[in-house]
Write a structure and sequence with these properties.
It contains 13 helices and 23 strands. The chain has helices at 10-22, 31-44, 51-64, 66-92, 190-200, 315-342, 350-364, 400-409, 411-433, 439-457, 469-476, 486-502, 509-515, and strands spanning 3-6, 102-105, 111-115, 122-130, 136-138, 152-165, 171-176, 181-188, 204-210, 216-222, 230-237, 253-259, 261-263, 266-269, 274-278, 281-285, 291-294, 297-301, 305-312, 382-385, 395-398, 517-519, 522-526. The strands form six sheets. A five-stranded antiparallel β-sheet has the order 2-19-4-15-16, with no helix packed on it. The radius of gyration is 44 Å and the shape is elongated. The relative contact order is 0.15. Belongs to the FliD family.
C-alpha cells in the first residue's frame, strides 16, 4: 500500500472523499453511475446509522422526549376544547336557543302571536281599533272590457311620499320620498297599463277590478301601508290636455288638485296607521306586522277586536340547557385535570397552568345581563366548586330548585344569563384553538419548529461533538463491513477527515487513531 498526501482545499477534499466513497471516477463515470453507490450507502445506514437502530432510538426517545410529550399534551388539550366548544354551541345556537317560550291568543282571528329569545311569562290584553291600510284609488269610469278598448297614449309619472292633508281627500302639498318613475303608454288598455305600472317598480300596485255592474276599472294602490305612504300620478297626455276627464289624463291623481281636474282617480281607501292598546297603553304602527307586545313577544294584527294573549317560557327546555352547560364544563375540566395531572405539571407550562384557571374564572365572574339583576351563575342555581388541588379546574353543580326560583322571578334574565355564559366560555376556548392566532396553536407551531431544528443535528448518539456512531464503528472494525471495497473504506476515512475540517466538531481519539493517520506535515489516508 502507498500513502497519498493531500494539499487540496476543504472543498477539494470533500469532492475527492465523496468520489472515493462512491466509487465515482470523473474521467470515466457518468453522474447516473454515481447514484446507485450513494443510495446503497445511505440505505444501509453506513453514514447516518442503520434503519433498525435509528427506529429503535426514535421509539425509545419519543417516550421521554419532553418536546414530544408537550406536543402530545397540547394536541389533547385542543381536542378537549374542540369538543367543549361543540357542546356550548349547541346551547346558544339561534335555531335551538332556549328561553323563547310559547304564546297563545284567545282570539286568533284578531292577532297571531310569536315569541323569540327574551320572552318571559306574561299576559297581554290586546285591543285593535284600526288596521293599517294602504292608499287606493280607482278610475271614475268603467269599460266593458279590459284588454281591447284604448284608454289613451302618453306617459304617467308616479311619485310616492306623503300629503299634507286638510281633509281626507284634499291636501296643500306633497312631499316625495324618492325619485319619480315615468312610464310610457302607447294605445294603453286597462290591462296593458296595469302591466306597465307593475313592471316599472314605482312603489304602487295596479289591478284591473270588476265592479258590481260587471264593468272593468283600474285600481292603483300604494305598495306600503301607513298614513305617510301616499302616491301622486301626473300625466302627459298625447291629446294635449293633462288634467281633463278624457284620454290618458283620466288616470291623473294629485290630491293637491281639484277633483275632476288633476285629481281624476277616486280615492277608495285612505292611508292609515294601525291603532291598538296593549294592557291599556295606546300604540300606533304603519304596519300590521311585528307589533311588539313585550320583550320577545310580537303580534301580527289581522282584524279589529280584542284578544287575551298568554306567554309561557318552557322551564323544561331551560332546565335542559342549564344541565348541558354544567355537563360540558365538568367534562372539559375533568379531562384537562386528568391530562395535566398525568403528563405535565401546571407549574412547568404557563399555558397548561392558565387554561383551567381562566375557565374557573368564567364560571365565577359577573356578567352584563341587560336590565336583569341576575348576573352570576350561582344566582340561577349553577354553583361553582373549587378543585381539591390549586391550578386545576373546578366543577359546576346545578340546583334545580334555585333555577326554578330564578325562572319564576325572571325567566328572560335566567335564559339570557345562561346564553351569555355559554357564549363567553366558547369565546375563551376559541382564543386557544383558533387557527392562525390561537394560544395552543402558536405554542404547538413553536415546539414543532424547535423539534425540526433539533432533528437536523441529533441523528447521532446523544454524546455531543461526535460523529454518527456507525461511521465510527465502520472505521474501528473494517473487517465487519466486508460489503465495502477498500476504496470505499478509504473514502470513508477521507470523508471523516473532511467532516472534521468543515464542521465545528472534535473527532474523538478512537476515530482519529483508527481511521486516520495524522502527522504534523499533513493528512494521509491508506489507499
Amino acid at each position: 500500500m502507498r500513502a497519498m498526501r493531500y494539499t487540496q482545499t476543504r472543498c477539494g477534499l470533500r469532492v475527492l472523499a465523496m468520489n472515493a466513497l462512491s466509487g465515482y471516477n470523473p474521467s470515466v463515470s457518468s453522474f447516473d453511475s454515481l447514484l446507485p453507490n450513494l443510495s446503497s450507502l445511505l440505505s444501509s445506514g453506513l453514514l447516518l446509522g442503520s434503519s433498525s437502530a435509528a427506529s429503535q432510538a426514535s421509539a425509545s426517545s419519543s417516550k421521554t422526549d419532553p418536546i414530544q410529550i408537550e406536543l402530545s399534551t397540547l394536541g389533547q388539550l385542543m381536542s378537549i376544547l374542540g369538543t367543549f366548544q361543540s357542546s356550548l354551541q349547541q346551547i346558544y345556537a339561534p335555531s335551538i336557543r332556549f328561553g323563547g317560550g310559547t304564546a297563545s291568543s284567545s282570539n286568533p282571528a284578531v292577532a297571531s302571536v310569536s315569541t323569540s329569545s327574551g320572552a318571559q311569562n306574561a299576559s297581554y290584553l290586546l285591543n285593535v281599533s284600526q288596521l293599517a291600510q294602504a292608499q287606493s284609488a280607482t278610475t271614475s269610469f268603467s269599460l266593458s272590457d279590459s284588454g281591447s278598448t284604448v284608454v289613451g297614449s302618453g306617459s304617467l309619472t308616479i311619485s310616492t311620499g306623503s300629503y299634507a292633508y286638510t281633509s281626507s281627500t284634499s291636501a296643500t302639498s306633497f312631499t316625495a320620498s324618492g325619485s319619480p318613475v315615468t312610464i310610457s303608454i302607447s294605445n294603453g288598455t286597462l290591462s296593458s297599463i296595469a302591466s306597465s305600472i307593475n313592471g316599472a317598480g314605482a312603489g304602487v300596485v295596479a289591478n284591473v277590478v270588476q265592479n258590481a255592474s260587471g264593468g272593468y276599472q283600474l285600481q292603483i294602490s300604494q305598495a306600503s301601508t301607513g298614513a305617510s305612504n301616499n302616491f301622486k300620478i301626473t300625466v302627459s297626455d298625447n291629446d294635449g290636455n293633462n288634467t281633463d276627464q278624457s284620454g290618458l289624463s283620466r288616470l291623473a291623481f294629485d290630491q293637491t288638485q281639484a277633483v275632476g281636474s288633476g285629481q281624476n282617480l277616486t280615492q277608495t281607501q285612505a292611508a292609515l296607521n294601525a291603532s291598538y292598546t296593549v294592557n291599556g297603553a295606546s300604540g300606533s304602527s304603519a304596519s300590521n306586522a311585528g307589533i311588539q307586545l313585550g320583550s320577545g313577544v310580537s303580534a301580527n294584527l289581522l282584524a279589529t277586536g280584542s284578544s287575551n294573549i298568554t306567554v309561557n317560557v318552557d322551564f323544561g327546555q331551560l332546565n335542559t340547557s342549564a344541565q348541558s352547560l354544567a355537563s360540558a364544563f365538568n367534562t372539559a375540566l375533568g379531562a384537562i385535570n386528568s391530562l395535566l395531572g398525568n403528563q405535565v405539571l401546571p407549574s412547568q407550562d404557563p399555558i397548561a397552568r392558565q387554561l383551567p384557571q381562566m375557565l374557573n374564572q368564567q364560571a365565577q365572574k359577573s356578567y352584563s345581563n341587560g336590565s336583569s339583576l341576575l348576573t352570576t351563575l350561582s344566582q340561577v342555581g349553577l354553583n361553582y366548586q373549587s378543585p381539591a388541588q390549586y391550578g386545576l379546574g373546578g366543577t359546576l353543580n346545578l340546583n334545580v330548585a334555585s333555577l326554578q326560583a330564578a325562572y319564576n322571578s325572571d325567566s328572560s334574565g335566567t335564559a339570557n344569563l345562561l346564553y351569555t355564559v355559554a357564549q363567553s366560555l366558547n369565546a375563551l376556548a376559541n382564543s386557544y384553538t383558533t387557527q392562525g392566532n390561537g394560544t395552543l396553536v402558536n405554542e404547538t407551531r413553536a415546539l414543532q419548529a424547535q423539534q425540526r431544528t433539533r432533528q437536523l443535528v441529533t441523528n447521532t448518539r446523544p454524546t455531543p461533538n461526535t460523529f454518527p456512531y456507525n461511521l465510527q464503528n465502520l472505521l474501528s472494525y473494517p473487517s465487519s463491513n466486508s460489503l465495502l471495497s477498500s476504496q470505499q473504506i478509504s473514502g470513508l476515512a477521507m470523508y471523516a477527515l473532511v467532516y472534521s475540517i468543515g464542521a465545528p466538531y472534535a473527532l474523538n481519539s478512537l476515530l482519529v487513531g483508527q481511521g486516520l493517520g495524522l502527522s504534523s506535515s499533513g493528512f494521509s489516508a491508506i489507499a
